[in-house]
Specification:
This protein has a domain at 1-122. 46% of the residues lie in helices and 10% in strands. The protein has ten helices and five strands; from the N terminus they run ααααααββαββαααβ. The longest helix is centred in the N-terminal third of the chain and has 23 residues, at 34-56. It is elongated. The relative contact order is 0.10.
C-alpha cells in the first residue's frame, strides 16, 4: 500500500499529465469514474493557473490571443507547477519559459514584455517605505558623502530591453482596439517600474540615469554612481538626479557603511 506522501505525489503527477490514469487508490465521489473525476479536478487546477497568469500578463494575452496564451499557460504549468497554494508568485519563471518554448521563439520581444508585466506585478505587491527627507543629509559630514549608499524603494524594478517594450505594453493594455503599431526596430528601452502611492508607474530613462539607478541598486557608493553615469554623459548632474528621485520616492534611504557613527544604519 502506498504511503500518504507517495499517494499525494502520484495524484499531483496525474493532475499535471493530460491523459494520465488515476492511481488505483483514487476513487470518484458518488460512484463517479475515477478518470472522469480526475479530469474535473485537473480542469479546475489548470483554470486557476490560467487565471493567475491572465491577471499578471494581460499584455501577453492581448498580443498572442486566447488560444496561444492558454497553450502557453498549460505548458508552463506542467513545467512549473506551483509549490504553494498562493499563486501570487506562480508567474515568476514565465519570462524564461517564453524564451525557450518553441511556439514563442518567433516572437523574440515577448519575454521582455513579460518581464515588464512581472515587474509591474512585483511593484504593486511590494512593501511600503517611508519617504526620505533630504534634510537628514545635513547631519552627514561632507567627507563621508561620497561613501553614501542609497536604497531604492522596495517596489523599484529596473528593466532593460533591446525592444520598445513600453510602447508594446502600452498599446496592448491601454489601447488594444486601436490601429497604432510599434516598430520593433525603434530602439531599446530602459525603464524604472515603481509604485508611487497606490499606482505603479513606468518611467522611461536615459542611459546615464538608468546606469546611475542600476549602480545604486547594486550597492554602489555615491562616488561610484557619479563616475559610472558621467562616463556615459559628461553633463550628468548628480544633485538634480538625487533631488528628483528622492522627491519622487524612487530613493527612500541612504547609508554610510564605513563610519562607526553610521555603519549599518539606514536613514
Amino acid at each position: 500500500m502506498q504511503s500518504l506522501p507517495e499517494l499525494q505525489r502520484a495524484l499531483a503527477a496525474a493532475l499535471m499529465a493530460p491523459d494520465a490514469t488515476p492511481p488505483d487508490s483514487i476513487i470518484g465521489a458518488g460512484g463517479m469514474d475515477a478518470g472522469a473525476a480526475l479530469a474535473v479536478y485537473r480542469n479546475n487546477v489548470f483554470a486557476n493557473y490560467r487565471k493567475a497568469l491572465r491577471d499578471d500578463f494581460p499584455a501577453i494575452l492581448a498580443l498572442v490571443g486566447q488560444g496561444f496564451f492558454q497553450s502557453a499557460c498549460d505548458a508552463y504549468a506542467r513545467e512549473h507547477a506551483s509549490q504553494s497554494g498562493d499563486l501570487n508568485g506562480f508567474g515568476a519563471a514565465f519570462m524564461e519559459f517564453l524564451e525557450i518554448w518553441p511556439p514563442a521563439r518567433s516572437l523574440a520581444y515577448l519575454p521582455d514584455v513579460a518581464r515588464l508585466e512581472w515587474a509591474i506585478h512585483l511593484a504593486f505587491n511590494a512593501a511600503e517605505a517611508a519617504p526620505l527627507q533630504l534634510e537628514s543629509l545635513a547631519a552627514v559630514p561632507p567627507g563621508l558623502v561620497p561613501q553614501l549608499r542609497w536604497h531604492l524603494h522596495p517596489s523599484a524594478v529596473l528593466i532593460e530591453s533591446r525592444y520598445p517594450v513600453y510602447a508594446i505594453w502600452r498599446i496592448s493594455t491601454l489601447a488594444p482596439e486601436g490601429n497604432e503599431q510599434v516598430d520593433l526596430d525603434a530602439g531599446s528601452d530602459r525603464l524604472l517600474v515603481v509604485r508611487r502611492g497606490a499606482s505603479v508607474e513606468i518611467e522611461p530613462l536615459a542611459l546615464a540615469e538608468w546606469t546611475a539607478l542600476t549602480a545604486l541598486a547594486a550597492g554602489g557608493t555615491l562616488a561610484d554612481v557619479h563616475a559610472d553615469a558621467s562616463a556615459i554623459d559628461s553633463a550628468f548632474a548628480l544633485g538634480s538626479f538625487l533631488q528628483r528621485h528622492v522627491a519622487a520616492q524612487s530613493i527612500v534611504a541612504f547609508q554610510v557603511p564605513h563610519d562607526p557613527n553610521y555603519a549599518g544604519r539606514l536613514i
